[in-house]
Amino acid sequence: MSATPPRPRGRPPKNAIALDATDKYRAPALDKGLDILELLASQPHGLTRAEIVKEMDRSASEIYRMLERLVARQYVRRTASGDRYALSLKLFALANMHPPLSRLINQALPVMDEFARKSEQSCHMGVYDRGNVLIAAQIHSPRGWSFSVQRGTRVGLLDTASGHLLLAYSDAASFDRMLAEHTPVDGEVPISNDKLQQTMELVRQQGFLERPSAQSYGVVDISYPILGPNNIALAALTCPYIRRIDQHIGPDQAQVRQYLKEAAISLSLLQDQISYLYE
Fold it and tell me: pLDDT over 90 for what percent of the chain?
């Protein structure tokens, strides 16, 4: 009978991903470095070495060695005061070098800019990321009057139009994985399984989603999928539509919906083959 492998010393930080106890491919040093990065990612002003040691519940010497390597590789920097550690921009730069997402953003921005100009509304593009939706690109209305969601924001998978589009246009395996990975974001509105399934059916029937925002009064979310091969959503293109009530006359909601539909079709792969899905 083989002996039970010893548990790694200490506890992981609160935001660390739990490892399966039967995982035989552990890399403790790598896990420790990733735990430090994930811990610092949640601390906008950084932490002192003593605070990191306390949070990680590890020896000061092993944390010191790992921090020095992360500083040397420029993933972590010392703050101006010299006594705190914070994430550098290296991870951000690496994320933006990811070719598929980078290409999608580069292609989407001119189209989104044209949509914003014609519709006088803002728009954003959301992609699935680790259980929720990451706003990967955003364009403000040129008129200055708009509602917008900042780039880099993580929004709920189960209570946003973007999330519902990404779920509705995913394959069965991805759908189950996305739900399994989902963790509620701050303020997320709960949804029953029956209601979620009804929304999925509605999205698949009409090819888009248009409804009052679950986060803000007076905002109507209009969202279309950006489709890739096999009609799988690469991203969701969403306009948080707001209606002006002064004397300015701009495109109405139906016109804005049409402009967004055209933008989504132009960004989707296999455009001629999938256009019928938007009818």
Answer: 57
Decide: 154 and 41 in contact? Cβ < 8 Å: no
Q: What is the pLDDT of residue 66?
A: 93
Where residue 223 sits, what CATH number does that domain have?
A: 3.30.450.40
Same domain, 80 and 131: no
The CATH number given to whatever domain includes residue 86 is 1.10.10.10
| Nearest CA among 41, 34, 40, 42 for reference residue 17 | 34
On whether both 141 and 256 belong to a single domain, the answer is yes
**C-beta separation of 245 from 275 below 8 A:** no
| Section 123-151 average pLDDT | 90
Helix 60-72 / helix 49-56 crossing angle, nearest 10 deg = 120
Identify each DSSP E strand in the chain by its residue range.
76-78, 85-87, 123-129, 132-139, 154-155, 209-212, 220-227, 233-241
115 with 75, same domain? no
pLDDT in tens, 98-123: 678 888 898 899 999 999 999 999 99
**Residues 6 or more apart in contact with residue 163 via CB below 8 angstroms:** 126, 132, 133, 155, 156, 157, 236
81 and 152 together in one domain: no
Q: Distance between CA 155 and CA 162 in Å, rounded?
A: 9
What is the value of pTM for the model shown? 0.68
Domain coverage including residue 220: 98-278
> In the prediction, which pLDDT does 269 show?
65
